[in-house]
Amino acid sequence: MQFLNENLKIFSGSSNVALASAVCKYLEIPVGGARIEKFPDGEKVVRVEDDVRGKDCFVIQSTCRPVDEHLIELLIYLDCLRRASARRITAVIPYFGYARQDRKDEGRVPITAKLVANLITTAGADRVLAIDLHTRQLQGFFDIPVDHLTGELVLSRYFRHKKIDTLTVVSPDVGNIKIAARYASHLGGDLAIVHKKRISGSKVEAQEIIGEVKERNILMCDDIIATAGTVCSAASLAKKRGAKKIFIGATHGVFAGEALKNLAGQPIDEIVVTDTIPLTEEAKKLGCVNVLTVSSMVGEAIKRIHRDESVSSLFNSM
Questions:
Q1: What pTM does this model have?
Q2: Is-catalytic flag, 104?
Q3: Predicted confidence band at 105 (pLDDT cuts at 50, 70, 90)?
Q4: One of 104, 196, 197, 245 is an active-site residue; which one?
Q5: In a domain, 2, yes or no
Q6: Structural domain boundaries, residue 168
């Protein structure tokens, strides 16, 4: 490709090798040469095998499970490239762990999202490229530039091509109304909202739906499926209210705890996530999970960052 030159290097951490390979395939360049090794005591070392002096380097690493191990690996990678005299280092973090610890909601607790942002900056990152941070305000936690992508671009395109008739986009909670409204606008559907009550950290009870769902196909979209308590409760209530097919969309398929077990028992026709986090074997067994790739979106963003072009113009087509 004419827009690329030998000064661009893309490296992959161990958390999402398939995504890094797909990004490099889109850009028609090889994955940067590096070895990630582990000492007998469990310590990791990153050995970059390519010359990166004066190069524009990108490290693709999701901080998904095991979160701490992948985070430390990213920090080591960044430090390695900085000490190897890379001209610019961009941490490409498709899924940013610890994002939900973004405030003090009670006494004597940390703001871990800010701590992680500081660690990434201190390790040597000059900028960050992330996808669907849990809250957009997290961009302000970094003291370096942040390019924020959204999975809405990929998910909206997919559901638009499905041409779902009599569609109602349901916000599974009040905090998700803006996202649901955008999907309803993209797809031309109606909007409904679930009123829920949180019983515990992993248990949520949907109490009522504001809007019409009877004899309609339902789409619920969010940035993340973690324990799946919210979507399971909302899907169950929508079905009781006479909904036809139920589709779930999310950028990040974390599927923590009893999420897969809970989802298996719900009247859900399709769950669509992206490959910001590799799908586990257990999740594949669920049967109704479909994975979309963000590789072209990430690759296009990397191309534009490398050429000092606008990244936000990516979303003009939404």
A1: 0.94
A2: no
A3: confident
A4: 196
A5: no
A6: 152-292
